[in-house]
């Protein structure tokens, strides 16, 4: 969870993050574990790897996002906005409830 400046349209559009605006923090991914290699034990699609140090959700968000790793028995460790950590499957990184609602 962070503030974002989107320049994809040519003009800078600021999306500022405010912690007190988070609804259902126990369901919102704050930190996510991206794939660290293209190895089959790490990357769910065999091609994705950390590209910039900032995890971006994908799929249902309409973004070309970063997949979560599968290095922990097919799961990734994620930290939610309320501070709890959970091992989740890669599809949790594209599940709308875990991403929206700010």
Summary, kept brief:
The chain is mainly beta and 102 residues long.
Give me some keywords for this one.
single chain, 0% helix, two-stranded antiparallel ribbon, 19% strand, mainly beta, 102 residues
Provide a descriptive summary of the structure in words.
With 102 residues, the chain is mainly beta. It has one domain. It contains no helices and five strands. A three-stranded antiparallel sheet has the order 3-4-5, with no helix packed on it. It is flat. The mean pLDDT is 82.
H-E order: EEEEE
Q: Trace the largest sheet across and list its strands.
A: 3-4-5
Number of strands: 5
Contiguous runs where pLDDT drops below 50 for at least 5 residues: none
Helices, strands, pairings?
Elements: E1 4-6, E2 13-15, E3 29-32, E4 76-80, E5 85-88
Antiparallel strand pairs: 1-2, 3-4, 4-5
């Amino acid at each position: 969870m962070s503030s974002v400046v989107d320049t994809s349209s040519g003009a800078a559009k600021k999306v500022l993050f405010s912690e007190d605006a988070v609804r259902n923090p126990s369901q919102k991914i704050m930190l996510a574990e991206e794939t660290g290699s293209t190895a089959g034990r790490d990357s769910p699609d065999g091609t994705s790897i950390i590209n910039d140090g900032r995890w971006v959700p994908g799929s249902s968000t309409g973004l070309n996002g970063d997949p979560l790793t599968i290095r922990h028995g097919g799961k990734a460790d994620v930290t939610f906005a309320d501070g709890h950590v959970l091992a989740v499957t890669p599809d949790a990184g594209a599940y709308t409830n875990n991403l929206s609602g700010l």
